[in-house]
Design goal:
Low-confidence stretches: 13-33
Helix content: 55-70%
Distance between the termini: 11 Å
Number of domains: 1
Number of strands: 2
Structural class: mainly alpha
Radius of gyration: 18 Å
Order of helices and strands: EHEHHHHH
Strand order of the largest sheet: 1-2
Largest sheet: 2 strands, antiparallel
Mean pLDDT: 75
Number of helices: 6
Shape: globular
Amino acid sequence: MNNFTRRAFTQIFPVASIVPTTLLAETQLSEKTEADPVPEWWREVCELRKQEIEACVKPGNGDFDSPEMLDLDQRRKALEQKIINREVTSLAGAAAKLEWVAYETGEGLFCDNQALLTADAIRFIRSLI
């Protein structure tokens, strides 16, 4: 079993070092975290986005209002809502949520420094898995 300690947490989020230890007691990664559906949902979202990109070049799909495009969009949005509503219960789930943030903001909504910080947090979390 892996341990996700307060020290590891404060390396990811330095502000946590000022929070009393009792609030950040050592967390055991257990069977519960192994069942975290967020990483799989994120993989499915990525696959649906890929399918949307492939479908949008088909004749009649350019306006994104064909039945195929609407179905892909609806399925993706339903998964995204599940990810939003699910609390993080694993490192893989936290990384998946940050990857989504990085993906969504990759078009310039983030400044360069924020993109680098997010990428570094994802890298660190992935190194703990």
